[in-house]
């Protein structure tokens, strides 16, 4: 580009002209990102809008889920660029379903937001903690004022030097909750700064999102479990239950030895593909991949396999879920709108377990590389 371009955030056609200039001699490339979405539809989702980048969509399943909220057979959309992924997850889903289905439950649900409050001394910081503790009910009420989704469960404080980190633990209903909790903690921080007389300055929110912080886990806590039958697994996958069990134990040992918090094969793969299909915030994968796989033989010769996802951050309302394609995908699994977030979490947990089983079986049968060679056919040129 011969000169510095100007991007007008209020003029769509001007931005399209800039795009075409950036593409230079390949104006046909502009057609590749043409979309039915209008600028009005994506307001609040993206700025300087010029189009959309399509991601291939595949169907995983069917999978038999027996959860508290998700019950029955589900075909689950997955959007990905990784060949073999949907096939592997679908095979895991078939193994689970033919073994009797997937038990799944959401056992926790909260969201953390914090304000960083700087005082003038250690003694002022200690006094500020006491001030906040004695006014917890007032701070909780202030944090949820004006919201239909938020409920403040508790407040608590951490300290570093003369600074105090004031945290509110929320539940966010069917919304993922990031923006609404940021707004809420801002109100709390402004009140504490104005009323305590102890705060020199404050910053909100504490930048804990979208990275692995084991001490600050949030979101839905999900466990999915299946009992795998030998007469299903071995003919279908050419891997024995003993070999799968030994492999899971071995890789977890090495991952722990190397300091990993995520003791799984590739949970982030499936969660990413479902996040993409269901209009979730992809950047939260930095937190949501911290899953732990477990297995143990049963007294009747089967293999009990589970995955625990301690922080699955998602919503069935708000954010990208309002765009037409994502509305359609959520409707496909009956997870659109209010009252559906926990059902969506259970479906994702069950599919994540299917992916762990499918991949483990392929590796134990020495078919992992061959499968990627056969199905992952995009080659660099």
From TrEMBL:
<comment type="similarity">
    <text>Belongs to the HMG-CoA reductase family.</text>
</comment>
<dbReference type="GO" id="GO:0004420">
    <property type="term" value="F:hydroxymethylglutaryl-CoA reductase (NADPH) activity"/>
</dbReference>
<dbReference type="Pfam" id="PF00368">
    <property type="entry name" value="HMG-CoA_red"/>
</dbReference>
<protein>
    <recommendedName>
        <fullName>Hydroxymethylglutaryl-CoA reductase (NADPH)</fullName>
    </recommendedName>
</protein>
<dbReference type="InterPro" id="IPR023076">
    <property type="entry name" value="HMG_CoA_Rdtase_CS"/>
</dbReference>
<dbReference type="InterPro" id="IPR009029">
    <property type="entry name" value="HMG_CoA_Rdtase_sub-bd_dom_sf"/>
</dbReference>
<dbReference type="InterPro" id="IPR009023">
    <property type="entry name" value="HMG_CoA_Rdtase_NAD(P)-bd_sf"/>
</dbReference>
<dbReference type="InterPro" id="IPR023074">
    <property type="entry name" value="HMG_CoA_Rdtase_cat_sf"/>
</dbReference>
<keyword id="KW-0560">Oxidoreductase</keyword>
<dbReference type="GO" id="GO:0015936">
    <property type="term" value="P:coenzyme A metabolic process"/>
</dbReference>
<dbReference type="InterPro" id="IPR002202">
    <property type="entry name" value="HMG_CoA_Rdtase"/>
</dbReference>
